Amino acid sequence: MATTTTQTETSSISIPTEKTALSLPEFMKQYGDKLPLSIEVITGYYGESNQVTISASDRLNVHFVKNTNMVVTKSHFGDFAIPTNSALEFCLVYNPNNNIEQALKGFGFKTVSDLLKTKLPPKLVCCTKLWRKDTFTIANGELLVILSVSQKQNKRDNSLKVYSITFSEEKFLPMDCEGHFTTSASSLHLYLQEIVQLIPDPFPCQVCIYLQKPGVRELLMNMPHYLSSEVFTLTSTTVEIALVASPAYKEAAGIIMKIPIDIPEVKVAIIDSPDAHELYANTSHLLQVYNPKIVQNLSDAKSGEQYSAQSLFYSTIRTGYEKDGIQSLKDYDYIKVQPKTPIDSTYADTISKSFPISATPDDKNTLTEHLWPSLDQPIAQCSSTLTTPVSNMIPEISLDKHDCVSTSKAATKQTDADHYQYIDRLA
């Protein structure tokens, strides 16, 4: 059927006069690089809880695409997808005997030789005693990733190849190295990104939330009680592809939502925006203030408790990583055009109060995507909602990196003197 089209004043996008229903993947394929655009929901989605609803005839402004690297986890209380740049730290649980209580307390190994006598050596250990011999040195509190055994003709000359997370360097430890190593879960806490990148073959592995981080216990007080004691099994990584959108009604100003494109039931149609200049201006503003704390994270949770837990994981992101994965506007001329009418003050004021602007005017929001090498992996199962406005459901928490661990490949190497001074301090 032939259709006539109209064009907005500030873009070359053709808007069909007759609505063509598109699935979200189809919409993404055809229009993902042409955002922002206005859409109408043709077929809605109704989930198991009141947080999971998109209604037919809802009109939305789709601002940009957000790709989020996720770690897929399983637990007794359901499956969760946790962003790899989560501000929460997780303790690795070494559980060779399938006994959680024993695993959380940990096992002790006096020497490297003792460590390698186990049928299933741990992947990560913490040294609890300063040890020096010839050119070998390990520090009290040093986190070591076990890599491999370097075989020599004389077995006594064998050494264990490890990666020191604390000092960002590889080391070779002799068999008689007395580091008094421990696998106590409370000593083995890392960010998910570190677990995925630094631990060889990390999946599957068991983890629990590190509760000694300042602010974590307060954060969990308003969340499902099981989170503080739950052991999660990390199974794989994936990439969630989602549309960041807002209702096209002024009375709903301030609602920002993230809609994963893997909802098969939802179909949408492109519609003409009443004011394209205002749409671009609002999108430009949202690019500057975007933070997971102001976004309503949409999921296919089967209960209110599971929804609260998933929202916690989506919203608690490390400082400086909030905008990772945003595909910004390709043509910045769109947002540099002076609007004929001022930016919707209600919209801007609501968003600014939720999260104050932090980017500089000249920043242009040239945001870099940090994606896994392939997008062919299965996308995390998430759904969406259009019913609850953004609110301060998640308490404020400042979760910065622990001081001793550095994973930057460009980290400045210490001089030998500084290195030994630091070891003495740790001891």
Written description of the protein model:
The chain has ten helices and 24 strands. Helix 6 runs parallel beside helix 9 (345-354). With 427 residues, it is an alpha+beta fold. The strands form five sheets. Strands 3, 4, 7, 8, 9, 18, 19, 20, 21, 22, 23 and 24 form a twelve-stranded mixed sheet that branches. It has a six-stranded antiparallel sheet with strand order 10-17-11-14-15-16. It starts with a strand and ends with a helix. Mean pLDDT is 75; it is low at 1-12 and 331-427. The longest helix is centred in the middle third of the chain and has 14 residues, at 276-289. The protein is elongated and about 80 Å long. The protein has helices at 24-31, 100-105, 112-116, 192-198, 216-221, 276-289, 304-315, 333-336, 345-354, 416-426, and strands at residues 5-7, 14-16, 22-23, 37-43, 45-46, 53-54, 59-75, 78-83, 89-93, 108-109, 124-127, 131-133, 136-138, 143-150, 159-164, 169-174, 181-182, 189-191, 205-209, 231-247, 257-260, 267-271, 296-297, 326-327.
